Amino acid sequence: MNNAASPAQAKETILFVGFNQDAGCFTCGTSAGFRIFNTFPFKDTFHRGTKAYLKITIMNIEFDGGIGIVEMLYRTNIIALVGGGDSPKYPPNKVMLWDDSQMKCIGELNFKQEVRGVRLRKDKIIVVLENKTYVYNFQNLKMAEVVETSSNLKGLCAMSPSKDVCVMACPEKKVGSVRVIHFDKGNKTLMINAHQSSLAALSLNSEGNILATASDKGTLIRLFDTDTGSQIQEVRRGSDHADVYCISFDPVSRFLACSSDKGTIHIFSIRADVHLAAQSKRDLCELNAANEEEPNKQQNLQKEDTSSNNTKSMLSFMKGVLPKYFDSEWSFAQFRIIDSSAICAIRDNKVIAISKEGNYYLADIDPKAGGECKKIQQRGLIQEEGAQ
Fold first, then answer.
1. Could you give the CA distance from residue 356 to residue 252 in angstroms, rounded to a whole number?
2. Can you tell me the distance from the alpha carbon of 42 to that of 357, in angstroms, rounded to the nearest whole number?
3. Can you tell me the distance from the alpha carbon of 182 to that of 21, in angstroms, rounded to the nearest whole number?
4. Residue 282: its pLDDT value, please?
5. How far apart are CA 66 and CA 54, in angstroms?
6. What is the domain count for the chain?
7. Bond preceding residue 41 cis, omega within 30 of 0
8. Which band of pLDDT confidence, cut at 50, 70 and 90, is reported for residue 212?
9. pLDDT greater than 60 at residue 258
10. DSSP string covering 255-316
11. Are the beta carbons of 368 and 269 closer than 8 angstroms?
12. Which residue, among 311, 356, 305, 306, has the nearest Cα to 334 in the 3D structure?
């Protein structure tokens, strides 16, 4: 329960925001601890070390420092924490594995450099440093893989959200390139030359068969097949430079959302053949169990597809004559927020945005007509009880 704000609470600042693997929850690392929220419907699930708990000792653990990274393991009690801010709870070069049911750290990983990012799976821990990405086995915390990367101050790394597929994507040593590793296919590895300039964001869809990337120019987002490395679609966020903070697939690979410092979240429609192929992969186990139904199921999938088309220039019919810009696919839906540093996700035809400025946004997407999304809710993350 939140208490009335005090002067001490008002000084609590947000250092980190992030979604869990299926975007069902999101986390906030703050100058005084961390908070866990349910995404939709919005709910402040619990917090540790916020000013309301400052210097209250729980099982000899005193929460009185900043947390710069908070990574959940799905909806379990296991959380990875990295210290941050002016007064970090833990050293920024350590990853602490926190078990909230036991209220204690159950493991730690130490490094010589500052930790830039962490990703968790039931079987793996990914730790991102500026020039290296480490893969550890969760069970024994032994290192299984190390990837040398180009400078990666943003801590870019993506893992397939599905519990049944294990694919990782991270920057390569070559600027603008991505290394993809299929851990469930004997560590099959390929390199994708995604952009000519440095990467700004990357994301994998649920089944790990589609990779989305954006460069530091922030104008184009490219989609690649992670099995072949071939480009399967390209969409345009805008024509001017932007700092892209997040790109995110919806659970069925039908939509892709992108947030940047421009304050507009763009929603793109993924081509029907692309997201139906992803759907087919997700349903493969079920189809194998009932082979006789497979033709009917594939037919039904095609009939039920309601993908919208992304917007194109009125001059796109002159493809090949005019510059490529005029044949670009633009977002079919948009949601405008007042903040300039937000992450985003899509669930159940709704777009969710969480900003480092401390706001939560929820809006409806019209899956057929697109256009401006209708805002449903906006509220602060650190505020008095009952404020909207």
1. 27
2. 17
3. 17
4. 59
5. 11
6. 1
7. yes
8. very high
9. yes
10. EEEEEETTSEEEEEEPPHHHHHHHHHHHTHHHHHHTGGGHHHHHHHHHHH--PPPPEE-TTG
11. no
12. 311
Q: Tokens representing 220?
A: 């184009």
Report whether pLDDT(306) > 70.
no
Specify whether the CB–CB gap between 276 and 299 falls below 8 A. no
Q: What's the CA gap between 118 and 97, in Å, rounded?
A: 11
Average pLDDT, the chain: 85
List the structure tokens of 54. 């400052």
Is residue 275 domain-resident? no
pLDDT for the residue 190? 96
In sequence order, the β-bridge partners of residue 66 are 88
Does 377 reside within a domain? no
Confidence at residue 352, expressed as pLDDT on a 0 to 100 scale: 98
d(CA 134, CA 259): 27
Sign, CA dihedral 279-284-285-291, equals positive
CB-based burial, 28-38: b 16+ in 10 Å, e otherwise = bbbbbbbbbbe
The answer to whether residue 91 sits within a structural domain is yes
Strand partners, 380: 359
Give residue-wise pLDDT tens across range 64-80. Answer: 789 999 999 999 999 99
Residue 272 or residue 278, greater confidence: 272
Which token pair is 167?
């694919």
- Long-range contact pairs involving 86-90 (C-beta distance under 8 Å, separation at least 24): 86/31, 87/31, 89/33, 89/49, 89/63, 89/64, 89/65, 90/65
Which tokens belong to 363?
């809006």
Please give the residue range of the domain that contains residue 66.
11-115
| CA 23/CA 10 separation, integer angstroms | 27
* Long-range contact pairs involving 167-175 (C-beta distance under 8 Å, separation at least 24): 167/204, 167/208, 167/209, 167/226, 168/119, 168/126, 168/135, 169/202, 169/204, 169/211, 169/226, 170/126, 170/128, 170/133, 170/202, 171/133, 171/199, 171/202, 172/147, 173/148, 173/149, 174/150, 175/150
DSSP state of 101: T
| Total residues belonging to the chain | 388
Q: Judge whether 170 lies within some domain.
A: no
Q: Are 95 and 104 in contact (CB under 8 A)?
A: no
Question: Whose CA is closest to 334, among 379, 359, 366, 380?
Answer: 366
* DSSP H or E run through 40: none
